[in-house]
């Protein structure tokens, strides 16, 4: 009781603008990292699938390194060790962005790979038998069937990269978590500010999930009916589950 | 087609061809010549290498020994030759392999547009022509998933024809179909044969072989065991394995 009566959320309103700008920083970092990770992850997935072992092995090593070491350590490596090795110096935000992008790229790579290999071989064979070149097969036959398949797990990755930004405060990045941390030490209102931050993360997370579901409704479910992989429940589950091993903040949408 | 049969270049010529999957030899010393206008039926027990053989003809599989020449073009690593051969050769698969994200019409126009750089209207006109021919023009706006198996397979045939192939390969085109749909697909293939299309058909439909083929090839364990005109093949098979196979397929 005493704890509850001692709570005072009024300073939160006083610091609304720093919190707001922290949120803006968080959002654009997550968005940019995701925007970089989708094409990069797709490229790596193609290397994994179609490249020889010389291409395949380094990509596999990269993906595992990114997935099985903490983002926090990666950020520190990139900000402090990389300049020592390469002689290039990055601002904290740049290092944070590089770390987050690489990290998310690894997850996107897995999702894309699962999606691409879920498309039955007969699709590519029919297209090649018709005389289509690899590029045309990829853009006109494979990818249009991959997108609806990878949309749900990609949505999960998007939400995950939003939440992963909280770790980047280890560098001098003023994201929402870092701002919260600073203000709370300043005001001694630790509980109030962290709770406020949590509510903001929760709301944005819900909003993102809602948006993902909308996109899915529009492009995913209905198109899935027209994917050659639709009968292939196992591969589909694999495509959806690919990201489950990693950071996941929302449950995958129920199969209907 | 009359021009094609006048020339003496074989449509397909396979000489001393062998293929391995690792240590396992799938095809052994295959010799086969198909002249323009020929209608060849290939049969044999499951696993005898029929699919592998016809997939070598458009290089969906590569062979390791011997030569394959299609319409005078030698099939080797040369991508340009492979592309040239694929322009001459159409293929119909057991599982149809229609593109599920495209409408029937789009299925038929995709290759003409991307490979032949045909305009949309030309490609669509041609697609409708062939959809008429396989008797399903009214399905043009639907998606493959909305069609029956027999209809899908006829679309697959139309899709191939849209590329103006001189040779058509069929790999068990009716094996995935319910019995009542087999006839509509075989009828479409018979029409095609009557127009003089060069055809290589892997099938167990012996009625079709009798009526349409001018030669039947029997394969077993990666080898061509016997090849004969249908009358001789069915009435006077020489090889014991052919007899056994015919007993099993025609028997009951
Ligand atoms: N990709 C492959 N790798 C290894 N073995 C294969 C492969 N494809 C086919 N085979 C084997 O080659 C043999 C011939 O197969 P196939 O040509 O499909 O026979 P058919 O069409 O006459 O049933 C079979 O024993 C099959 O198991
Ligand atoms: Mg077969």
UniProtKB/TrEMBL annotation, chain A:
One of its GO terms (molecular function) is transmembrane transporter activity. It is a multi-pass membrane protein. GO terms for cellular component: ATP-binding cassette (ABC) transporter complex. Pfam families: BPD_transp_1. Its main location: membrane. Residues 23-212 form the ABC transmembrane type-1 domain. Keywords: Amino-acid transport, Cell membrane, Membrane, Transmembrane, Transmembrane helix, Transport. InterPro entries: AA_ABC_transptr_permease_3TM, ArtM/GltK/GlnP/TcyL/YhdX-like, MetI-like, MetI-like_sf. Gene3D superfamilies: MetI-like. GO terms for biological process: amino acid transport. It comes from the Bacteria. The chain crosses the membrane at residues 20-46, 149-173, 193-213. Signal peptide: none annotated. It is found in: Cell inner membrane; Cell membrane. The keyword Phosphoprotein does not apply. PANTHER family: GLUTAMINE TRANSPORT SYSTEM PERMEASE PROTEIN GLNP, MEMBRANE COMPONENT OF AMINO ACID ABC TRANSPORTER. Part of the binding-protein-dependent transport system for glutamine; probably responsible for the translocation of the substrate across the membrane. Belongs to the binding-protein-dependent transport system permease family. HisMQ subfamily. This is Amino acid ABC transporter permease.
TrEMBL record, chain B:
Keywords: ATP-binding, Nucleotide-binding, Transport. This is Amino acid ABC transporter ATP-binding protein. The keyword Cell cycle does not apply. Residues 12-246 form the ABC transporter domain. It comes from the Bacteria. Belongs to the ABC transporter superfamily. The keyword Metal-binding does not apply. Gene3D superfamilies: P-loop containing nucleotide triphosphate hydrolases. CDD domains: ABC_HisP_GlnQ. It comes from Histidinibacterium lentulum. One of its GO terms (molecular function) is ABC-type amino acid transporter activity.
